[in-house]
Amino acid sequence: MALLVGQTNPSRITILGASGSIGVSTLDVVARHPDRYQIFALTANSRWQVLQAQCLQHQPRYAVISDPESAVLLQAALKAQGSKTEVLCGEQALQEVAAHADVDTVMAAIVGAAGLLPTLAAVRAGKKVLLANKESLVMAGGLFTQAVQDAGAVLLPIDSEHNAIFQCMPPIAAGQPLDMAAAGVRKILLTASGGPFLHRDAGSLKDVTPDEACAHPNWSMGRKISVDSASMMNKGLELVEACWLFNCQPAQIDIVIHPQSVIHSMVEYVDGSVLAQLGNPDMRTPIAHAMAWPERIDSGVASLDIIAQARLDFTAPDLKRFPCLRLAIEAANAGQTAPAILNAANEVAVEAFLQERLRFDQIPALIEETLSTISLTEPVSLDVVQDADRQARAVAVEKL
Ligand code: NDP
Ligand code: MG
To answer: In a mutational test of the pocket of ligand 1, which residue from 14, 25, 45 has the highest number of ligand atoms less than 8 Å from its CB?
Structure first.
């Protein structure tokens, strides 16, 4: 907590991936607390009209847009409206607004491997980093967590399950690895809704459309993570994410299907106590928690009506129905570059599924073939990780 002393008031925030689902929820929380938060920079990939509206409302110093044509359009539109926001373009600019000396807090909400370098830039600059981009930890967890310690950054999880686990854990010294045994923690119970196909006839999964896969029963999210939730790859990625965040082994984490998404995860202690964090499934809760931590602020989320909720169900996951979850557990146990390869092959497969070039039930086979083609290495440097990522993408694209 001592690390938060340097925070300014209002706290100045960069949102990487502002135009996405997490970005929009973050801006909703920011708008509720104008005295507390000020937007320094907002970024997007290509959806410049969304970024334009956000810039006009929040007047950041910088807007970064990765696609050069969109950058030209955004710049012209903002200029025409008298906005003072400066438009930047490209990967380097993302890293600059993440690491800028005038920034206190960075929300890392770019989807996929594209989020790795800008998120790492924020970590290396010692920022308070609110981590939604789970793919960066899956790819490079060892390097990432080491960088957090080296730079004295404050890393707070936004993923609802990890935020819940964080809330149920004893206070963790900022930047220091958790010692679960010393803290009396026996295991983590990572909950999963099971997604839209929890009860669907497995034989019919070959006919699933992108819109069906993206229609999550409880959460409204971007399309990539929605497909990951439908295949349960998301829970596999979260298993790896939890191992890095809470310094533990896959065997110390039980995955539990809980279709109502009211309990967001649990922590069991050696005395038999099980602590859970509950709430309506709305990402503004973990976002507000991490933004204000260690204080609490209003997030705009409605009170949980536990009487109306009435019942909570729990079952074990079915690894036959969800082979992506099995592959991710295997990759988590294999370690080395296996999670990075899994992640890259999954990104290629999900993109192809969303473009209707691959069937939903073919996603796991493509990932499994990619994993069996590439030899694993120790992820000793970012170059090694990025090389594994590139290789996996090339293999997966070829096998498509
Ligand atoms: P969205 O698809 O809604 O948003 C993604 C954001 O990243 C957009 O701003 C998008 O810009 C930007 N982006 C995409 N590709 C690139 C790129 N190559 N370079 C720079 N920016 C890029 O995703 P979500 O908000 O749903 O998810 C964001 C992250 O948070 C993911 O890692 C996800 O796993 C994680 N997460 C999300 C949850 C949720 O409820 N949504 C819950 C837990 C974790 P543009 O709009 O221009 O395409
Ligand atoms: Mg989650």
So the answer is: 45
